Structures are given as C-alpha cells and as structure tokens.
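the two lines:
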Amino acid sequence: MSTETSTFKHVSSSPHLRNPLTTGGVMMNVVIGLVPVTVFGIWHFGLHAALVIIASIASAMLTEYLFDLIAKRPNTLWDGSAVVTGLLLALCLPSQCPLYVPILGSAFGILVAKCFFGGLGQNFMNPALAGRAFLLISFGKVMTDYSYDAVSSVTPLASLNSGEAVDLGKMFIGLATGHIGISILCIVIGGIWLLVTDTISWEIPVASTISFVIFLIAMSGRGFDPYYLAAQLCGGGFALGAFFMATDPVTKPMTWSGQLIFGCLYGFLSAVFRTQGSMADTTTFAIIIANLATPLIDRMPVPQPFGVGKKGSSVIPSVEALNAPKRKSMIPKSAIILMAITLVAGGGLACVNMMTADTIAENERQAALAAYETVLPGMEITSDDALTAQVEQFAETGYGDGAFGRVYINEAVVGKDSSGNASGYAISVSSMEGYDGEIAMSVGILPDGTVTGISFTTITETAGMGMLANEDSWKAQFKDKNVEAFKLNKAGGSTTDEEIDSVSGASITSGAVVNAVNAALDFFHNYVVTG
Amino acid sequence: MGIYNFRGGVHPKGYKELSADKPLKEFLPSGELVFPVSQHVGKPAIPVVKRNDLVKVGQLIARADGFISSNIHSSVSGKVKAVEPRLNNAGVMVESIVIINDNEYTLAEGVGEKTDYTKLSAKEIIEKIKDAGVVGLGGAGFPTYVKMMPQKPEEIRWIVANGAECEPGITCDDRLMQEHPEEIVEGMKIVLQLFPTAKAVIAIETNKPAAIASMKKAIAGDNRFSVLELKVKYPQGGERNLVHAVTGQYMESASLPASLGCIVDNVATLAAIYKAVALNTPLYERGLTVTGDGAAQPANYIVKFGTLASEIIPDEGGLKPGTKKVLLGGPMMGMAIPNTDIPLEKRNNALTCYLEDEVEIAQGKLTNCIRCGKCIRVCPLGLYPQMMAEAIEKNNLQRFIDVHGLDCIQCGTCNFACPAKRPLTQLFKQGKPLAMALNRINQSKKEGSK
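prediction for all of em together
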C-alpha cells in the first residue's frame, strides 16, 4: 500500500452505512416470489410452457443488452429487471402459443415501453403488460387460444360468463385452462413472500381486491353472490396483477395514500371491464390505465411533514410559521381547467344526444323502410301483429340457437300489392359476427320462398374489403333465388344457386351475411309461411 | 409508559457491542492541542490569549462573541504556541489556538470548587452555564444557556434528557449513564430549579438495559423524574420525535421544543451543566467512542478538547492496517475525514473506523430510481425524499420547497434504505442551502413589493 492511501482516507457524504438490499435484490425477490407459480405452470401445462418462459426471458435480456450496446449505455442486465419482465410476460401467455409470441412480446415491452423511455425506473407502464397489450392487438387469435393437449377448451371465466358452473377449488389451485401463471394458490404464496420480504406493501393487493369485489357486487347484476365473486377473484389474471404487476415499483405511486387510490382504480377498472366490457382481457388494460394515472396520483398527496396540520402542534406558533406562505394546491391548475372543459363538453354532448335521440330514431326508421322498399319494390309495407309477436319471442336470445352464429331477427313486415294481398315479406336481421361487429340488413322474400334481394341498414366493415359486400354485384347473388339455405363458397366461381362467392379477402363479412340471410329464410319457413 | 415508537425509521446494524462494555477512560494527550474558535452553532469566539501566554486547565482562551456563541476553555496547562488558522474537522482553515501541553494539568483558579447550587438564583445558574461554554453535546453544538431562557419559562413542563443514542456504534452516552448517572440527575435538578413546575424525563432506547437500570436507580425516590423507554430504531433520538414521545404533541420544523413546553438536552450536556454549576468546571472534555471494525482497540474515552484524532487512533496501533474510512461521529450522520490530523472538539462524540467503505461498494450498485417508495416509508418526518431528490436533480428548488424539503434533518435514513443506492442525503445537503437562499430571495422580493 502506498503512503498516500494510508494517510488519506475515503471521504463521502453521510450516511456511511447502506442497507444490503439493492435493486437487483428487489428484482431477485420478485423472481423468487414467482417461482411457485412458474413451477406449477410448467408442471400443469407441460414442457412447451417452459419453452415459452425461457424464450420470453431470453428475448427480454437480449433486447436490453442489444439496446445498451447500440445506444452506448452501460450494461444494465445485472439489475435483473429484464428477467422479471420476461418472466411476468410469459406467465400471462397461453401455454401452447408459438415461440415467436413471447419473443416479440418481450422485445416490444423492453424496447418500446422501457428502453426508449430511459431504462429502468423511467418506464411509464409495466413493460410486461405493454408487451402483452402489443401481442393482444397483433395476434388476437393466438393470444386467446387456451387449448392444450390438443383439446380445445374454454377458460373458467368464459364458462362463468356463459352461465355454466365452474369448479372453484380447481380454479384456486390452478387445475384449469388459461395462461401459464394460473395457480392462484401459488400466486398467493409468492405474494406473501413479497410482503414478508418487504418487496411490496399491502396497500395495492388489499385495496384492489376490496374495490374489485365492491364494484363487482355493484355492477355484475348478481348482487352479493360469494360463489360468483370467488370465481371472479380466482379467474383470469386479476390475482397475478394484484400481487405482481400492479405492485411493480416503477409504475405504481410511491406514497401510502397514492397506492390505496391506485389499488382502488385497478380494482374498479377490472370490475368494469369484466362486467361491462367485451374484451376477453381485463387485467392488462386495467393495470396499464392505472399506470398512466400514476404520475397524477403521485403529485396529489403533498407530504405532511412531522407535526404540520396535526392537532396540538405548536401551542405557540413561531413567527416563521405565521409568515409562511399558504401551502399551494398540488393539483395543477391546468388539470382543473382541462377537467372543467371535459365536463362541459361531455355535458353538451349528452344534451345534444338527448335532443336528437328522437330524430335519430326517426331517421333509422326511414332507413329501414327504405331498405324494405328496396327489397320489396312496388309494395306497400305494413306491419303485422302476428308476425311481430313471432319476432318478439327471439328478441332476447337471438335466433337459431347459434346455428347461424349470433343473429337477431329485428323485425318482419308484410309487403302488400295494390289490391291489399300479401305478396312479399321483408325480414330485418342482424348478425353480430361481422369483422367489425354488427351487420344489419333487410331480406325480401316472396311467399314461395324466393329471395328478392338484400339491403344493408348497418354495415361498417373494412373499406375496400368487407365493404365490397355492399356492392350491388355481390348482393345480386342472392336475388331471385329459391333455395333452402345459401352456402358460402370461399374459393369463388360458384355454379349452383345455393353457392355465394365470398368477397375476396373478407370471408368473415361474407359468412356473416350468408348466415344472416339463412336465418331470415329459416325464420320465414318456420314462422311466416306456416304462421 | 409503554415503549415509544414512531412511524418510519430503519435498523442499521448497531455493533454497539464493540465498545459497550468498555468503561470511560481518561485519555491524556501528549503533543500539542488545537482549539478552533468555532466549535458550536453561532458566531466564532474571540481568542483572549496570545503567543507564549501560559494557560491552565479550565482557563478561558476564547470568549463568546454575541448572543449565540460560546466560550472556549483550555483542557490542559501549558504554553500558547500560536494563534493561527488550522485545518478543522470540516476541512476548513479556522482561526485556532495552539497550546503545548506541559503534562502537569494544573487547574485554573476555582475550577473544581463545589458550589451549593440550590442557593443560586436562576440568573446565576444561566450565567454559569454560559461562562462554562456548555453547548449541546449531542452533535449540534447549540449554546445551552440560550435554551434555558425560553420566552415563556412558566410554560415549560418537561425537561427531557436525550439518552437515545440511536447512532450505530456510539456508546459514550450509554457509559456515562451507567457510570455517572448522578451527574445527569444533578444536572436535571439544576434545570428543574429554573423551571420548578416541570417534570424530568430521561429517554433511553431499550437496547441499553444497564443504562436504564442505572438511571432508574439514580432517580429512585424523586417523583419528578421518570425514564421513558424508546424502541430501538434509527433515528429515535431526533428532537422532534423525542418531543412527540414525551408530550404526545407534534412539533413543526418552524418551532422549537420550548413552544411545546419542552427543554431537550443530551445526557452529556446535562452532566456538563452539573459540572459547570456545581463544580465550577467549564466544558473542556467529553466522552468519545472509538469503534468500528477498523479500530484496533474499540474504547470509550474522556477526551480533552484540542486532542488530535491521530493521537487517539494513530496509523500505527490505533487503526488496523487497510482502514479505508474514518468518521467523526457515527455512521449515519458522521463526517468522513480525509486524515486524522484534526483536533477533536465539543461536537465530536465518536471516531468510527471502517476497513470497508460501504458507500464505495454501494456506488457500484447504483441504478436509476425504481420509485419503490422505501424512502417515503422510512422518513421519520413523513417527507417524500424521492420527490425532493428529483426536484434537486432537476434543479427545481421551488418544487423542493413545495414538498417541504426544508424540513429535512439529513438523518440519512432514506439514503440507508434506498435499494437503488441513490445519494439522497448528499443531494439534500447540496440542495437545502440553495433552496434556503431562494426562500430568502423570494421573501425579500415580497417585502420589496409591499
């Protein structure tokens, strides 16, 4: 040792002791907490699940490494956050998904949500969930295909929503269909580990669970139904989110009160999406939206320093305290103004909607009438009480018990010729299975069962593809045909009357239309002619 | 009274066992002694001796200049070598009185003479405390006599002896309470004489059972006294937390303990009051702990002010080879010194020596802030260190003030807890003076516009 180092000691600012816990240690604790659920997932779903997990972690680490390399940043792999991201993403993927899914998802999450925003600590949303949202949008079908062992099956939540019974015990243990991190039991064990090691605090899991349950009771329409509530808690990704994703330190508020608000927001959004939404996925978007609220939440609670505002503080206030400026509100003025504008605009829209509601209904009526007249040219359109009664029995459930997909018979009317005899029928039918939701149309049918034509009243398909179904040439395929049912010919070049050429590149749209027309025909044969 | 606790705090490893069983031992310096004229909060004292003057133990060598200032006395007898700027422990050149020790320890006239303090008036007692140069020995060095003159003396209800000693490693107060509890109790009785309606509370962390027992024994039979046990936690000895423990009331940063009817003094300060008033002995020595894994012989010394740290822990024999860091004070709030050739003074309660520099190791593990919120949870004052640090890093001093950064006592708790190893306390030490300057500018602007 040189004399210099023996004479001069290290100097630094106090404190000179440091807690042994490091960022890497925090991440390691999370990984340890995830071990039970990971092991269970691999045991339950088989080897492919392990491959998905490995691919996801490897992709996350590689992406971060390459970004650091290209961006000439210090290597940050050792902090372990990439491992956590990769593992968390894998745990919310279907076990049998192709390996490009976790690889792309992790890469997107790490690169776009984290690295581009400045790396660890700077990401505004959970990178794993950003990756998952990206995958949901890009590979919707793969992401919701939970079949394994070559057996297609539905998730417990889907069963629950369609009114079937689910096995709560199996759901809790994780013996069900779903993403890899499915075992609630293992998640709770891991969550307890995180709480014991002080890696997370209790606020978010507790607040989110309580608010989730309360809002489910309020919004599900089932009231306080313990069986339903337990199934909702055990189903989907809510528990994984509550313990491992919403508690991600970077994207949650830092303060005690902020975390309570954040937890309630997550629970509320989850309940809304589960009960009111049509998306299969609720946790991802609930947490992401809550993440986006974090900076605002963090600015709201101003710290109350020891003594300030407490009862009995400063019996004799000091001069400084009296002269101190009043504490400013921490909600930025601009936010208040923006909120006011939003409220006014929203209120205005609501008023306009109320005032125009009748006009809109009238317009719709006119459009429907026009459609009836299109398919039953030259006839006088009249409603028929017996027909209306027939239609109404299917108003709630839809028509055909799924034989035509989700279709609804909206209305059936009679077309009368100049002498007042029924010389044709028009049936308004909607299919919910268009590429972009509802397609509604009128189908004109002569008393002998010949289709006179179809006319759309609602169609919002993809321009240039699905919308081509609205071309006269395509609609003409149904015209003047007398068949039992039409058949979709995806290949084109139809020769028989039954066959309908699919719109090129829009077989979903075409199929929905064919189904709807078939439903109308079926309704006609079963309820109109006989009735 | 139950064991008091507060919200937040951390548990750094205590390692008090290194020196806890070492009795206080007088350390006699041999070389020259250096007395900086600024060893307290307030204005530096004015030297009253000059080169070649002969001085005795307890003799005044620099007198207080103004209201908030303090007398300084010689701790040895000998000859003044020089009155010149010397390096003090903060690394600043400060006017200092250098005395060559004659090793005789001849007492100055009157020093050590007993006085019956019960016959003294309040004014006389305060005058004696002032003359003896007693300042807060907990580390702040605030002139004690000023504390004894609150605006409304009749409202003082508690005299609190701070024996928490929550800094890791330091044991000199612990030893003082075990070995000389009567000095502390007598000191408190003197203060009680100033505030006859007050009660006396001695606050001690529960990791010092011997001190608690010793103090309980010393106060037995006097119902004005009680011992308050505090949970072992850093920073339990913080004044605002202590006042809350005693009174149940919260103290704002802008107020003094006296506004809540409290007078808080370190146990060593109270012992110094006793010596000053009853024994006519000015403050020229104090307890000091030598500890840490780099100290060859952990010990508790009574050290005479002016003694160079290098005499107590010489490189050969005092420090273990390879000692990387030497601190004046404890590890949480103490100051690292680049070398040991600096004089010890009134505010120094420990020399902590480390073979490893934890800060250096931590720097290798520095990451971005992961916003885990641990700093917020541990802050004993309920502040948001993360937001304060962010404000300073972005040079947004107004934001720092808005999130009450000026309330920070720089106890280092948040910095200790931070897993990302952010240098929080350092940022606050840099930012606080800047923010206070901004505050003053704003205030003067406001006054200007009126």
